[in-house]
Amino acid sequence: MSLRELLVLGSASAVPTRTRNHNGYLLRWDGHGLLFDPGEGTQRQMTLAGVSATDLTWICVTHFHGDHCLGVPGVVQRIARDGVEHEVNAAFPASGTEYWRRLRHAAAFHDTAVIRERPVSGARARLDTGDAPFTLTACRLDHPVESYGYRLEEPDGVTMLPAELAARGVRGPLVRRLREEGVVTTPDGRTVTLEECAVRRPGQKVAFVMDTGVCAAAYELAEGVDMLIIESTYLDEDRRLAAERAHLTAGQAGAVAAAGGVRHLVLTHFSERYRAEDEERFRRQAAGPFRGEITLVRDLDRVPLPRRRPAARPAGG
User: Name one Pfam family in it (predicted).
Assistant: First the structure.
């Protein structure tokens, strides 16, 4: 059975607190494990969450501020120590390659050859995901150091309609050919197209938007996703401070989600300036512009992806 969920390993911003570790987010996706922004302490949080280094297939760093990357040395050394044999891709801003390599080799250890570097550059980049069941796109955000958000997309599929297949005489091997080729000829000479016998099943989509000011790329990443994991460092009354430091407020995160038609909004990356009793205000302020489901995460939370969107249009529509 496939598993698609977000595991929150840390949810603080620049300074960890007693209840919130530095950033760390593991997206589980059908046997793949995408670790976003491993901050300091991520290796220990993985242990507390029951996550193994063998679960990781991607490490995606948005930028090289410490709360988003100081866990890289421990994670890499754990991959080596545990003898992970499969390839682990590492995506990060190309402009920070020197930082990546310092982190990658921050201490003496028996190295591993399984990590494949995937530096990202330009305003928008499509990463090579090989035979993985998703695509991965990076878009440059607005932050004092070069920062990228990531968008994971499952290709759309199709759901075959048995009654329509039977009515047109499409049976046995012809069904597979119709799915793969889009058109078949039945034994009685009829031409049947895929759109006559199937409806399109939208693929699931997730976006990960960390440190950024309000910008077009944040909206682009969020467009039409099932889950948006996004920073909400400040409350709305501190929007001037957010603008100065190129971060988002809870209300601004909600506005991005509302504009994109997001289904599930996940708020994280909270400033240490706020107290525990302030936390529900983040939810309320995000709910001003956004009417969908909102999760204000805590460390070690598991957040399942929403159920698939229903098939809503002909396969060829």
Answer: Lactamase_B
Of 177, 198, 219, the residue at which a domain comes to its end is: 198
Query: Are 115 and 135 contained in the same domain?
Result: yes
Counts for the chain of helices (H) and strands (E), in that order: 10, 19
Same domain, 36 and 135: yes
Residues 149 and 192 in one domain: no
Range of the domain at 191: 159-198
| C-alpha dihedral (250, 280, 8, 217), degrees to nearest 10 | -10
Structure tokens at 142: 């607005």
What is residue 308's DSSP assignment?
P
37, 67, 236, 238: the catalytic one is 67
CATH classification of the domain holding 97: 3.60.15.10
| Domains held by the chain: number | 2
65 is in an annotated binding site: yes
Distance CA 45, CA 34 (A): 15
For residue range 23-67, what is the model confidence (pLDDT) as tens digits? 999 999 999 999 999 999 999 999 999 999 999 999 999 999 999
**Cα dist. 73→44, 80, 102, 105 in Å?**
12, 11, 9, 7
pTM, entire model = 0.91
Asked whether residue 141 falls in the same domain as residue 290, the answer is: yes
Is 143 labelled as part of a ligand binding site?
yes
- State yes or no: 67 annotated in a binding site: yes
pLDDT above 70: percentage of residues in the chain: 97
**Is 37 labeled as catalytic in the residue annotation?**
no
